[in-house]
Structure formats: structure tokens, C-alpha cells
Amino acid sequence: MTAIRRRSRLPGVSVTVEIATESDRTLLDRLMQLYLYDFSEFDGRELDDEGRYEYIWLDAYWTDDDRRAYLIRSDGRPVGFALVRLTDPVEMAEFFVMRPFRSHGIGRRAAQQILALHVGDWRISEVKGNDAAVGFWRVVIPVAFSEHMLADGTREQRFRVALP
């Protein structure tokens, strides 16, 4: 029997974060569909009549001054995204790394790069039941943080990112 070799889909060491531009909108929308599919486990979201998950805020990331969309790449390939709201405190609205690229340090490195871009107070929240996200952020947040359980079961971390 001959062994079949498959090309590894696992990334190398390169992790970059870049601001998503208008030309990245379709790519981000496709990644958003994967994210919302994964997230439907927690929020019960259903497909619309066109077979898509709706995310009503996506267009605002190209029109509102207080929102930033970032693409996460590994070895030049898109592997995820982050959506940040520049409020007080700054809020990680959404953060996603595709399943094949998780547990390789990519998400951690990307998240830390994004946090470093926005000095000041931060808030990161995870919905009830998303224990993997809670564990991820507890490791990723680079400073001491306070953690709170909200009435709806959402867990929230608050912390301050200072200048290096």
C-alpha cells in the first residue's frame, strides 16, 4: 500500500495583520460567513432565504470612522479577521481564525498585534458557552485584566493597553 502525501495546510511562522480596504470587502464577507456558521452554535443564528448568515454591521466598517476591519494572514494567505470598534473602551467586536489555523499561535499573535495598535482601555466579551474564546483571551491579553460575568451570561474582560 502506498502512502498518500498531502500538502500541509498548516501555516508557517508568518502572521500579519492589515487594515481591510474596500477591495477586501468580498473576502471579508466570505470569511464572515465561515465565522457566523461557527458562531451559530452559540447564538442559534439561522440562514436567510439566500443561504447566507446576516451580519448587519459589516458595511459600517467601511463607512464609520469609529470602526476598523483587519485581515489576518499567515504566509500571505487569508486565515481570519478582526472587527474593532473605536469606542471608549475600545471593543473587539468580532475575532475569527479559520479552524485549520487554530492552535498554532496565529490567533494569539494576530490579536496581540491588533491590541498594540490601539493604546487605551479595552473590553473583550465572550457569549455564554463559548469557553474556548474565554480561554483564548485569558492567555492573549498581555496585561492584568478584570473579568466580569454579565447578567446575560456574557463574560467580559477589561484592561488597558499602554504605549510600549
How is the topology of this model organized?
Elements: E1 15-19, H1 25-43, H2 60-63, E2 67-74, E3 77-85, E4 90-97, H3 106-117, E5 120-126, H4 131-140, E6 146-149, E7 155-161
What does it look like?
The protein has 164 residues and is an alpha+beta fold. It is 27% helix and 29% strand. It has helices at residues 25-43, 60-63, 106-117, 131-140, and strands at 15-19, 67-74, 77-85, 90-97, 120-126, 146-149, 155-161. The chain has a seven-stranded mixed beta sheet with strand order 1-2-3-4-5-7-6, sandwiched between helices. It is globular and about 45 Å long.
Q: Name the CATH superfamily assignment.
A: Gcn5-related N-acetyltransferase (GNAT)
Largest sheet: 7 strands, mixed
Rg: 17 Å
The number of distinct helices, counting runs of at least 4 residues, comes to 4
Separation of termini? 56 Å
Q: Would you count the extended β strands for me?
A: 7
CATH classification class: Alpha Beta
The computed structural class is: alpha+beta
The average pLDDT is 91
CATH architecture: 3-Layer(aba) Sandwich
Q: Helix coverage percent of residues?
A: 25-40%
* Biggest sheet, spatial arrangement of strands: 1-2-3-4-5-7-6
In total, the number of domains comes to 1
- Secondary-structure element pattern, one letter each: EHHEEEHEHEE
Low-confidence segments, given as residue ranges, are 1-8
CATH topology: the name is Aminopeptidase
Strand content: 25-35%
Shape: globular
GO molecular function: acyltransferase activity, transferring groups other than amino-acyl groups
Protein name: GNAT family N-acetyltransferase
InterPro entries: Acyl_CoA_acyltransferase, GNAT_dom
Keywords: Transferase
